[in-house]
Structures are given as C-alpha cells and as structure tokens.
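Quick one, T. Sequence first:
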Amino acid sequence: MQARGPVVIDIRTPDENELSRLAATDLLVDYLAPGFGDGLAHLNREAPYLIYCRSGHRSGLALELMRGMGFTDAHDIRDGIIGWKAAGLPVES
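Structure tokens:
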C-alpha cells in the first residue's frame, strides 16, 4: 500500500485532528459533519485510499460507504489512531 502512495484521509473531527494525526495525512473529511458523502463524491474512485478515525468504528462505516460509491482501492486502519499509537507507530501533534 505504501509503495503505491495512497491518499490518507483522516475522518475524525477537526478537534480530534488537532490532538494528533498521521504525518502522511492528505485530507481531513469529518465523518460527523453534514455532507460527509458529498466530501467523498469528488474523489477519484480508482485511486488508492487509506482512511482512519479514532478507534476504527467510523472508518469501517466510511469504508462501506466508499465501496458502495464505487471506490475500488479503499482501506482503513482497523483500530484507528488508537491502535496505530498502541503499536508504537509515529504520529504528529
């Protein structure tokens, strides 16, 4: 996945993003904001995407939505940024 250079999308709220984020984050599209699906609709459905949230719940739901919208190469971080940090992987503050 990393070799293909996925677009990394943080779907947490702006306040959550302020606390910490993955350094490679390209987009912030708040899952809880009205029009979340509209924010995804303009994206290239063929490009590779990696989405994450706090614990993996919202990203799992967003992944289902993206697949339903025809995204062919979308993935999520199963345990969110919490799992990422627990694995000792780096984040930015």
